[in-house]
Amino acid sequence: MINQVILNYQKKLFWLIAISTLVRLIVASSLELGNVEVYYWALSTKLQWNYFDHPPMVAWLIRLTTMNLIHAELFVRLGAVMSCAVCTWLIFKLGTLIKDERTGWFAALLYTTSIYSSIEIGVFILPDSPQMIFWLSGVLLLVKIIQMPPDHPKYPLLWCLFGIVSGLCIMSKVHGVFLWFGIGSYLLVFDRSRLKNLYVYLSLGITFIIISPIIIWNIQHDFITYKFHSSRISLAGAGWHVGMFLKTLSEVIFSTGPIHYFLVFSGIYWVLKGNSTVDKKHIQILLFCGLPLIVILVFLSLFRETLPHWPGPAFSLLLILPAIKLASREKSIAGKLPTILKSAIGYSIFIAISQLMLINYFPGTLSAEKQGMKVGANDLTLDIYGWKTAGIKYDSLYKSDVAKKTMPVGAPIIITNWIPGAHVDFYMAHPTGQQTYGFGNIWDLHQYYLMNNYKKSLKYGDDAYYICPSNLFSYKTSNKVFNSFKTHDMALIFPEYRSGMVCKKYYVFRLKGYKGYQSPK
Description:
The chain is α/β, with parallel strands linked by helices. The chain has helices spanning 2-30, 35-44, 57-65, 73-98, 101-113, 115-120, 128-147, 155-172, 177-190, 198-220, 224-233, 242-256, 258-272, 280-301, 312-318, 320-329, 339-361, 387-403, 418-432, 442-445, 447-451, 475-482; strands spanning 413-415, 436-438, 464-469, 485-498, 501-514. The protein has a 5-stranded mixed beta sheet, sandwiched between helices.
């Protein structure tokens, strides 16, 4: 009977992963790439050991799934979809190991219906997408380690595997250090005797070896990655901002899902009250790995603007706590889902459909700017809409210019910021065989600033293009570009429509006679 129950949960898990993966593949292939996705694609075109703003794993993954740069949205995002499927299985295994298969099943359902884990990093490709595989694998190994006496034959192997997994987690995103912070804090507080075991330090050494390329790259580049991120979280001169905190909190709740958010904290309260029959060591590992990241980011959000997906790995891990609670309370209703889980599933489906409808079918723009040069300004839905059509129209212009000898073959496209530079790169420059060339400073261009080093430099007298969508147009920025050339003219201006109404415009300029560009200080 027990084996039959296990088989049933495994069968349910298979269908959950299969159906949710199919849905994600459909969504991933039907939406244009977002700002960060095209940027990570750009990183994958020149593989390195580290990049301006992130470790290399996401770029490596995109290079793998595009099979040496197949130019299609689905293949760029395929790594995210695959990672989400693996993570659903991992969190099931983690819940099963900690308590039972029912707990694992509820954890898998919660993971699949979380906005962050299932959509934000399960459809869209982010550094978090591969990171979550190593994050959950690392915690799974830690749970096995603390279950095992140090003299067990597999004990050294598990520590070595943890060193590898945590290193790969950091190679995905620096948040991975919280795996070591979690186990280190746990051992210091609850199990100091294990610190005498040499394999703990061998594991730490393995992690350092794996992440050493990040350190070496930053030494070679004046620690630019750490300067960038420290500027985002530094508290020097920062004041108390309650409004910013409330804004971040609301975004985190939306990103996690309000039902999931409530369940996580109710689960934490429930286990801290001693209601769970699960081994305390397992609960402690979950809390030590998950809570520090949440607490630190909550503190930072009181002073600095933080991004809502930053604490995502911690919330995703802690979904196991409400899964334990639900599995403990609902055993009498065999084969039925708790009402709150049904609500979570319904909410996630509603949000997914409403977001798709908003992006693809909202009439015109959400922006207050509906006319003039800045149509669509601050409308975030436009970041992921209209680029494919723009690329086709630009392709026609470029071929016409070349045929008429108005512009030279391969004239570069000037970009001044990674947004929208990466979109221009993916949807316009790459299809025509042109290169983008960055004007400006590293803080605006990010990795594109460093990419200039291995691109053909502009020479005096060269011609180029400058392309900008109206929702991101700036007179100050465009004038800096124009002043670097002898002459410029508007080659093309065309509106982008959504449901029959103009949502933004694209401006394409021809730039003639390069004079030299003075980078702003």
